[in-house]
Design a protein that fits this description.
The complex is a heterodimer of chains A (about 800) and B (about 350).
Chain A lengths: L1 H14 L1 H38 L6 E5 L4 E2 H9 L4 E11 L2 E8 L7 H10 L14 E3 L1 H9 L6 E3 L7 E5 H7 L5 E2 L1 E4 L10 H4 L3 E4 L1 H4 L1 H39 L1 H9 L4 H46 L11 H28 L11 H29 L3 H33 L3 H52 L4 E4 L3 H13 L3 E12 L2 E8 L3 H6 L2 E4 L3 H6 L3 E5 H7 L6 E5 L2 E9 L7 E6 H7 L7 E5 L5 H11 L7 E3 H15 L1 H26 L3 H9 L4 H42 L10 H27 L3 H9 L3
Parallel strand pairs in A: 4-7, 5-6, 13-18, 15-17
Antiparallel strand pairs in A: 1-9, 1-10, 2-8, 3-4, 3-9, 5-7, 11-19, 11-20, 12-13, 12-19, 14-17, 15-18, 16-17
Helix pairs in contact in A: 1-11, 2-9, 2-11, 2-12, 2-23, 9-12, 9-14, 9-15, 9-23, 11-12, 11-22, 13-14, 14-15, 14-25, 15-22, 15-23, 15-25, 15-26, 23-26, 24-27, 25-26
Chain B lengths: L2 H8 L1 H9 L35 E12 L4 E12 L12 E11 L2 E10 L5 E4 L4 E4 L2 E5 L6 E7 L4 E8 L4 E2 L5 E3 L6 E18 L2 E16 L7 E11 L4 E9 L4 E7 L5 E4 L5 E10 L2 E11 L4 E7 L5 E2 L5 E10 L3 E7 L4
Antiparallel strand pairs in B: 1-2, 1-13, 2-3, 3-4, 5-6, 6-7, 7-8, 8-9, 9-12, 10-12, 11-12, 12-13, 14-15, 14-23, 15-16, 16-17, 18-19, 19-20, 20-22, 21-22, 22-23
The chains are: A alpha+beta (about 800), B mainly beta (about 350).
């Protein structure tokens, strides 16, 4: 009996292959996008972990200094007290036209030395040669190529044992390149320690003991928000996909009600029937889940280079460009496929379970039922939105922001059928002719079958508007901000401090205003802080992008009494102008203003140059901004190059620097744009599948209209019109939702994720384009059913009157 | 990945060279480094300090100690200086690398530890006046400014010691007034000792603290190429007889024959260099140590002083499994002369 029942139930799919394809495709799409996002996240996190492992920083605590540098003597004293520590000096070094992150370690004791020694051995290099004053650099093969392309004057050993974009060297070379012979950035506390040592808190009271997790948290802190963003996008795509799945499952059961009645009449027990349906769903989930995983892998592999660029551009976080199959995301994808199927199919299975033995197939009078369920769904939707708002108001943080967004999107989708229904009622009042009155009413009757697809469309359109508005607003703001920030006409980097000083004098003599760009890195409340020292110049007073400031902010900065902080730092620590800030031990200043600083994940502050030099006398003096009339630019550049041995690539004019910054910005949002497009594609597919599945059910309603003299051609046109109408109403409703989404992204998510709030700009042209795109999708989705209708054999329509379906 | 495995890998290149060019690279070319000169007058306290123009140098202390209950202990404290290039520079630019070994040996247990450090940054070094040699938390520090009174500390995972050393005799210069020839072809080093230390102090062992006393022997040696190219290692004896006389003797093993030398130190402290070949040592018994066949019982002879005795290791497994590995441990002398001493054997691969 089981076999017969199974055969009967499954035979449905032979007769409705398109429905099967829809179901599988929907689930595969949902699983695919979800696992693509998870694969990207897993790969990125594995990259961070590998980098920490390779740099020997995984699991090791660190000693840090409050002012950012540890004197060399301090290190030696701690060694002599018996502590086994590995010194590290970090900084940026420029070779040719490129800057590299340099990590100087003592090759005699740093944990990563084992890997480097292996590489050196393979290279046929005596490992100890790297200790000699001539020096040697170690880098990932890709970075090694970049080093050699920039004519680095040191031998390079390339090794897979280092993450990309990090150049390692012995401290003898690193301290020379970074010109910090007497200071260290931090000390790794190695796991192997002697018993009975005097505690560090006692012998090194001025140093901060950072736990391993907090030490490696810098990257995690910055990138977590990005990964959360991706996950949210993945969930959204998954939800959209699920709408398709639920629609298809519902329909397949609806169409098999007669079959179920017959089977039960023949004596098949209810339990067996439900088991058969459950088995069917499980098989679908497995097959579609696997297909989705395969698809997800390819999507992720295609997107990963973009993600790497984004992460490197935004946070300097290293991510390998290649993808590997990890059980984490593969299992999570399959679990989502099963979970989603259960979620989508539970309602239908429950309906079968409760179906009276001889219940007739119910194809009618669903309009009124739908009316009641629309109200129920709308009330639940409003509750979702309210809960989201409540969470946002009660809790802080990125998760609360996403909870609000989740509630808003889900709630809005649930309110949608009621709103469309109301719109259609309103439209029906305007109808004059019977045919149009029928069209409005019929559209309303179709709404329950279409509403899932329309919800998917609403979400996709709103996401597009919201994310599009966010990215475009960001770009516009960023562009304007670059204009303010890059106010010098040309930027020059000298090859040494001595050359820098000479260059500044020479330029001053020629009457060119010189703005030295000098900075010092330290740690502030456990996170990196970059301090810039500026001279008193009108350039800053006129152009600097201030958000809030005291009236005499620049005077106070110039007098060495005050500092300016970037928005990120102010947001993170609740700083406001007028407050006092303790930068390091014995260094306290008033906050005179807050300025915007986009694209930088870390804290930054500006003090007067003399003030900075008092606390950090050894900082580099190689970079300068020059103010001069634009028409003198080419001449001045060639004069500089004639007078000094400065490579061409060390001289960048404003326009070039701006173009570079914008290209980094654009790369940053490649992944967002790609996911945006994919989501819209999924929604369009949802429309198509629901229209396709609905149309076969529509004959009983169409046949009487046809019988009254409306041609098939007219009916087909009505079909297209209805699809357009529904899409148009949905698109109109998506606009306010999208704008709320954009607001939430700009004012809530961005502040939490990056620390900056952005002004919102509106882009009506984009909306119009999207609106037309939605209509196009609607027409495309309705085209096939309409074509079939126009060519339908009249006999089929007659059959409706001949026998009960 | 721990520091030790990292180190041994880093030093693998060095060790490989050591095999080809004598132990620890000591037989390699002395390019750029200073060479010991016959006739040089050692001058103190300066020569207690480091000589960065020479490739290699050590401060090498061994002691035979006893606890109150009569248990025998040997202790070793060695600081090596090895220069990647001649001369000294400030901070990280210094080409000097320091390495230290410490050990405590009993008849059934041999504990050892190693330290390695950069020169130039204060982590390790030797100052001559007042005398102090240190690396990380280990030190050999003068309490009177000179070499007569020393305090000695070292600690490893399983042991530590804190000892006071008091010299009861004069410094001894080996070879020709401290110029010690190491091969037929003339390789030489500067070499002097203080073999007359009375030692008291405490050892911290896994079982607890032990008060010990005994006598110690400090060797000071520096050179740039103390081994000839064909020499692969040495067997080195420092023996203190019950009579108060002392004997230092070594055999440098080479492809073209061995080279032996030594010094007879009378109870009064007068040193007499031994002519090449007069000190003789023959292995009597071999032990399997860390997969190597190593002689741990010897017959020594010095006919001119009527010495004919057996030298037996207190613990045949006194293997220093450090970056450069070698055998180093206390010995007992029985025969024409009785006493204790230390034996060092290198180059057994």
């Amino acid at each position: 009996m089981t076999r017969a029942a199974l055969h009967a139930v499954l035979s449905h799919w032979w007769r409705h292959p398109l429905q099967l394809a829809t179901l599988m495709a929907g689930l595969a799409l949902a699983t695919g996008l979800w696992s693509a996002v998870q694969a990207i996240n897993a790969e990125a996190r594995a990259s961070y972990a590998r980098a920490a492992e390779q740099l020997g920083t995984a699991g090791a605590d660190r000693l840090l200094a409050e002012n950012g540098t540890i004197p060399l003597g301090r290190y030696a004293a701690l060694r002599r007290a018996g502590w086994n520590l590995a010194p590290v000096l970090e900084g940026t070094v420029r070779f040719g036209r490129q800057s590299f992150d340099l990590m100087g370690v003592d090759l005699l004791n740093h944990p990563m030395v084992a890997n480097l020694a292996n590489a050196a051995e393979q290279d046929g290099v005596q490992p100890l040669d790297a200790l000699l004053p001539s020096g040697r650099l170690f880098a990932h093969p890709a970075t090694a190529i970049a080093l050699e392309a920039n004519q680095t004057p040191y031998p390079v050993t390339s090794t897979e044992a280092l993450p990309r974009n990090v150049v390692a060297a012995d401290l003898s070379l690193a301290s020379r390149l970074l010109r910090q012979p007497k200071s260290l950035s931090y000390l790794l506390i190695l796991p192997d320690q002697l018993p009975g040592l005097r505690p560090l808190a006692e012998i090194a009271p001025g140093l901060i003991h950072a736990k391993a997790d907090s030490a490696s948290a810098d990257t995690a802190r910055l990138t977590d928000s990005f990964h959360l963003n991706l996950t949210a996008f993945g969930l959204l795509s998954f939800a959209v996909g699920l709408f398709i799945v639920q629609g298809a499952i519902l329909l397949s059961l609806e169409q098999r009600r007669g079959l179920i009645r017959t089977l039960r009449g023949l004596g098949v027990p209810m339990g067996l029937l439900v088991a058969v349906f459950a088995a069917e769903l499980a098989f679908v989930a497995l097959a579609a889940g696997l297909a989705g995983l395969a698809g997800g892998y390819f999507v992720a592999a295609a997107l990963l280079p973009g993600v790497s660029a984004t992460l490197a551009g935004l946070y300097g976080a290293p991510v390998e460009g290649s993808l590997s199959l990890r059980p984490v995301w593969a299992l999570s994808g399959l679990a989502m496929a099963f979970g989603g199927t259960v979620l989508a199919g539970a309602q239908s299975l429950f309906a079968i379970w409760r179906m009276p033995l001889l219940s007739a197939p119910a194809a009618h009078a669903r309009g009124q039922q739908a009316g009641r369920s629309q109200w129920g769904s709308a009330i639940a939707g409003i509750a979702c939105i309210l809960v989201g708002i409540l969470i946002l108001k009660t809790f802080q943080g990125l998760l609360a922001g996403f909870a609000f967004l989740g509630g808003l999107m889900l709630g809005a989708a649930m309110v949608l059928p009621l709103l469309i229904s109301a719109g259609l009622l309103l439209g029906a009042r305007l109808a004059r002719r019977p045919f149009s009155a029928w069209l409005w009413a019929d559209t309303r009757a179709q709404l329950p079958g279409m509403s899932l697809a329309l919800m998917a469309l609403l979400l996709a359109l709103a996401t597009n508007i919201g994310v599009g508005t966010m990215v475009s607003s960001f770009r516009l703001t960023f562009n304007g901000w670059l204009d303010q920030r890059l106010s010098a006409e040309v930027y020059v980097t000298a090859t040494s401090d001595a050359q820098g000083a000479e260059l500044a004098t020479w330029l001053n003599q020629k009457g060119i205003r010189v703005l030295p760009i000098r900075r010092h890195d330290l740690r502030f409340r456990g996170a990196p802080l970059r301090l810039y020292g500026v001279i008193d110049d009108a350039t800053y007073r006129d152009n600097w992008p201030m958000l809030q400031s005291l009236p005499d902010a620049w005077d106070q900065v110039a007098a060495g009494k005050a500092l300016l902080v970037n928005e990120q730092l102010a947001n993170r620590h609740g700083l406001s102008p007028g407050a006092e800030l303790r930068i390091a031990a014995g260094w306290e200043m008033t906050i005179a203003g807050i300025y915007s600083d986009y694209g930088n994940p870390n804290g930054q502050a500006i003090v007067s140059l003399p003030e900075l030099l008092q606390h950090a006398p050894d900082i580099a003096n190689r970079q300068f901004g020059l103010r001069l009339p634009p028409d003198q630019l080419p001449e001045t550049i060639s004069e500089i190059r004639k007078a000094f041995e400065i490579p061409r690539e060390n001289i960048i004019d404003q326009a070039e620097l701006k173009a570079r910054s914008l290209s980094v910005f654009d790369r940053t949002f490649v992944i967002t744009a790609a996911l945006n497009l994919l989501t819209l594609g999924v929604a369009g597919f949802a429309m198509l599948t629901s229209l396709l599945t609905l149309w076969s059910q529509r004959l009983p309603q169409l046949a009487p209209v046809w019988a009254m003299g409306v041609t098939r051609r007219q009916l087909a046109a009505a079909e297209l019109l209805r699809s357009l109408l529904l899409a148009a109403i949905t698109a109109l409703l998506a606009l306010p939702l999208g704008l709320v989404l954009a607001w939430a992204l700009l004012a809530v998510i961005n502040v939490e994720a990056f620390g900056w709030k952005l002004p919102m700009y509106l882009f009506p042209i984009d909306w119009l384009r999207l609106f037309l795109l939605a209509l196009l999708a609607a027409v495309a989705a309705a085209a096939l059913p309409a074509l079939r209708l126009s060519r339908l054999d009249p006999a089929e329509l007659l059959k409706v009157f001949a026998h009960e379906r | 990945m721990n520091a030790k495995s990292a180190l041994s890998l880093l030093l693998a290149g060095w060790a490989a060279t050591a095999q080809a060019q004598g132990f620890a690279g000591l037989g390699s070319d002395a390019e750029g480094f200073a060479i010991p000169q016959r006739g040089y007058q050692l001058s103190f306290p300066q020569d207690h300090g480091a000589h960065p123009d020479f490739r290699i140098e050590w401060w090498y202390l061994t002691a035979n100690l006893k606890s109150a209950s009569g248990t025998r202990f040997g202790i070793q404290w060695t600081l090596f200086r090895s220069a990647l290039a001649p001369g000294e520079a400030d901070g990280w630019q210094s080409p000097q690398i320091w390495m230290a070994h410490a050990a405590v040996t009993e008849s059934d247990r041999h504990l050892f530890a190693e330290r390695i450090a950069r020169g130039g940054i204060g982590q390790a070094g030797v100052s001559a006046n007042p005398f102090e040699a240190w690396i990380d938390g280990w030190q050999m520090r003068s309490t009177d400014g000179a070499l007569e009174e020393l305090q000695l500390t070292a600690s490893g995972k399983a042991f530590s010691y804190d000892l006071k050393l008091s010299a009861e005799g004069p410094l001894v210069k080996h070879g020709e007034n401290g110029y010690s020839v190491k091969s037929e072809s003339g390789q030489a080093s500067y070499y002097y000792s203080q073999p007359h230390y009375q030692v008291t102090g405490t050892l911290d062992l896994p079982e607890g603290t032990v008060d010990v006393s005994g006598h110690g022997w400090l060797d000071r040696e520096w050179s740039s190429q103390p081994l000839a190219e064909d020499q692969s290692g040495w067997d080195w004896f420092s023996l203190s007889f019950d009579s108060g006389d002392k004997l230092m003797g070594f055999i440098l093993r080479g492809d073209s024959g061995n080279y032996t030398s030594g010094t007879w130190i009378s109870a009064g402290g007068t040193a007499k260099p031994l002519a090449e070949g007069s000190f003789q040592a023959e292995p009597l018994e071999f032990s399997n140590v860390e997969g190597r066949r190593i002689p741990t019982r010897w017959q020594i002879k010095l006919p001119q002083r009527n010495v004919s005795a057996e030298v037996q290791a207190l613990n045949p497994q006194s293997w220093m499994g450090t970056s450069f590995s070698y055998w180093e441990g206390p010995v007992t002398v029985n025969g024409s002369h009785n006493g204790t001493g230390y034996l060092e054997m290198t180059g057994y691969e």
